[in-house]
TrEMBL record:
It comes from the Bacteria. Pfam families: SIS_2. Residues 33-211 form the SIS domain. SUPFAM superfamilies: SIS domain. InterPro entries: SIS_dom, SIS_dom_sf, SIS_GmhA/DiaA_subfam. This is SIS domain-containing protein.
Amino acid sequence: MATETVTGSDYGDVVRNHLTRVEQQNASALDDVAELVLAGVRADGLVLAAGAGHSLAAVAETFYRAGGLACVRPIYHPELLPMHGAVSSTAAERRSGLAAEVLRDAGLAHHDVLFVFSTSGVNPYPVELAMHAANAGCPVVAVTSVAASALAPRRAGTTLAENATVVLDNLVPPGDATYPVANPVTAAVSTLATTFLWNLLMVRLFDKAAESGVSLPLWRSANVEGGDQANAELLRKYQTRVPQLG
């Protein structure tokens, strides 16, 4: 019997199948995270979003985004941005102590929620973020790949998932690449899967807030009529607590 070959024209199906698995396997955890975030909104807390390297794409997705939460504070350090130095950004993520530095500047409270985006989940920066937040009594949501963590070198002695309150698993395979299927070398899926998880969370959060009579602080697009006016009140409320709002 001939073996079926997945070609480039089938790649969309590979991605859609992956996202379907992500949605199905995270259903319960997404409900738990939505409850955590809703409790934080009710308590006038912040969602702190952190990552390193290409996981900073997920942090950008959470912040100042049309339809996104206004109570999000991005947590990062310039050394972690690949555009500021690709090799040095990898070194920074592997350096112990940087997490304590960025969290000290940001502050943590028990009514906040810290999201740590890290597909491998094994380097000191994401792991220490989770550990420091947990010690401060702040819930931690790890957005990671359990499979990738299992095979990656444990540079921090433990993993992000092992130090989280709730784990959202993006199911990314070790190495991130997905194509060709038999021997993948290209087409990383982590950004797609992680962004999908975030938006699945936003949908659940919106529905739970509506059921509870809670008004979510949601940004409007600045490029639609009335967007600037709608956002002005949110800027007044959060600008002093989220310096990145400028």
